[in-house]
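Throughout our pipeline, every protein is held as a single compact record rather than as scattered files. This encoding replaces a full spatial description with a residue-level series of whole-number codes. The remainder of this section carries one protein's record, kept here as part of the documentation.
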Amino acid sequence: MKLTLSSPLKDFFINQRFGENATPIYGQLGLMGHNGIDFRAPDSTPVYASHDGRVTFAGYDGSGGLGVVIRTNEQYEYAGEEAFFKTIYWHLKKDSLLVTGSQQVFRGQMIGLADNTGMSTGAHLHYGLKPIARGENDWTWFNLEQTNGYMGAINPEPYLVEKFTPFTRGMAIGDYSDDVKTLQAYFLRTGLMQPIPQDEFGYYGNKTAKAVLTFQIKYVQLSWYERYIMRGVRVGPKTLAKLNETYS
């Protein structure tokens, strides 16, 4: 049976992925890069348990600040065998914890509020996942991947039921929004769009429409009207679905 995790937040938006941003601070912590996912979570955003399990830690950690660790109740498929897992929730708000050590929790149960405690430059949720095994005693556990350069952590994203969806709303020519900025940044990164002046960043103009049409021709099954009349002036449900599917 494969482990599946629910999003720890209702607003599923990733600011930093696993392994990204290999700054000197990670080296100082003995890491090759970021050993979890950073979710966008403004101050006091509710944080929820991603699975049923037992709280194995609820308190302060040096770099993680206030946090919670939850261990699965059963084993799941991992690397051709079976393993227990633990999920990790760091940078929670002072005095906000709603769980204690050894407590049994359930998927979707609120465990605290997001904030900026520990080694952090802004309110967010650091979310981690580690495959673990029980030692000789019930209270002795160890990380299966402790020497992988991420202190035993693995990428949680493939286990999350909710997929990363950066594009959730339709867009059309004449719009000016952060969604358009995200769209343009994606097209620039993938070569579907040529560099644009700074004052056009975020504006859905003719250059963006041209890039949208190029994307649609490549990935979307267009009607004659959409291809030859609309010509990329609108991002609708079909295009949104393909954008989220191909986004990287």
